[in-house]
Design goal:
single chain; about 325 residues; alpha/beta; Rossmann fold; 3 domains; 5-stranded parallel β-sheet; about 50% helix; about 10% strand; binds zinc ion
């Protein structure tokens, strides 16, 4: 993998390459943007470029440093996230202060050549104590290190952390780019690749999941069931809440549900061409204010079930579905 193999993000990549060529690489970078668009991939590639012996606009892919980077065993590469030193996910899904201390120890010593690169995935999951400890490193970064914070929820980061990083905003990928790569990678027929790309909202990983046989149909059925609960039909709302709360992919289901309500709003403006889900208006109120309220309720529920809140899924879903059903009746 090198920069030239990365989908999209040409502007962000050229800023990084130019900073490297001019020897003016920022000590701390924040890669912000939707999940699944390739932020981490660009971070990994930048780490490789920073350490390649033959760097010339792109890493060479042939030197010993490139090989070590490719196998994630380069001593200058430190990967972190909501996991411990051995890569085991922390049970609460958060980045602990111990992990931040490990990183601080690893970057204390000067490197022989190249630069130490720390990539922190899901940086928004840092516990408060971890964030505060990490701030010290951002305030006085070691001379030969580059810290890259990767996040799809930058609003959850402390403002003091954000202000100390050079921010790069990664945008959703274009459906055309996704469809063509999806076709090449999975051998999916063009029509299906385009359909998955259109549904993905610019996220390659979402497109991949929609490309899986039947995946979209399943999410669509759920959305139809939720939007179709009769006003004040508490029994159906509670039964569906109980079913959905047992799903491992509940957060994704809620993300999908948001696109359903977003589409309804788009449909009301007459811009049907911009709707992602055909027929998304089924069962949803025609009152724009109510649709926006429903959208916010779904997002609130999604946040509630995620770390650090970890609210009881069944209770959250019961509240959400009863709220949504009540809205339609009023
Ligand atoms: Zn190389």
């Amino acid at each position: 993998m090198s920069f030239k193999d990365i989908l999209g993000h040409t502007k962000e990549i050229s800023v990084l390459v130019n900073s490297l060529g001019a020897n003016r690489v920022a000590h701390s970078l924040l890669f912000a943007g939707p999940a699944g668009v390739g932020k981490r991939l660009v971070a990994l590639e930048f780490a490789r470029a920073l350490n390649c012996r033959n760097f010339s606009g792109d890493s060479c892919g042939e030197c010993a440093d490139c090989a070590l980077m490719d196998s994630s065993t380069h001593p200058n590469l430190i990967l972190a996230g909501p996991s411990d030193k051995e890569g085991q996910a922390t049970p609460e899904g958060l980045i602990r202060i111990e992990r931040v201390r490990d990183i601080q120890n690893s970057i204390k010593y000067r490197v022989e050549r190249g630069k130490k690169v720390v990539i922190i995935d899901s940086a928004d999951r840092m516990m408060t104590a971890a964030s505060n400890a990490f701030l010290k490193t951002l305030e006085e970064p070691p001379a030969d290190s580059v810290i890259i914070l990767v996040t799809s929820r930058s609003s959850d980061l402390l403002p003091t952390i954000i202000s100390r990083c050079q921010r790069m905003n990664f945008r959703p990928l274009s459906p055309g780019v996704i469809a063509s790569f999806l076709g090449k990678k999975t051998g999916l027929p063009a029509a299906q690749a385009h359909e998955a790309a259109r549904l993905s909202g610019g996220s390659f990983s979402k497109a991949l999941s929609y490309a899986e046989e039947g995946e979209y149909g399943k999410k669509r059925e759920i959305a139809l069931a939720v939007a179709g609960i009769s006003p004040a039909d508490t029994d159906t709302a509670l039964r569906l809440a109980s079913e959905l709360s047992k799903r491992d992919d509940l957060a994704e289901v809620l993300e999908f549900l948001k696109t359903w309500y977003r589409d309804r709003l788009v449909g009301l403006t007459g811009a049907e061409g911009l709707m992602v889900n055909a027929g998304a208006s089924t069962g949803v109120s025609a009152d724009p204010r109510r649709i926006i309220d429903s959208f916010s309720m779904i997002e609130r529920a999604r946040r509630d079930i995620m770390p650090p809140r970890y609210a009881n899924k069944q209770l959250v879903m019961e509240g959400l579905l009863m709220d949504l059903a009540g809205c339609f009746g009023a």
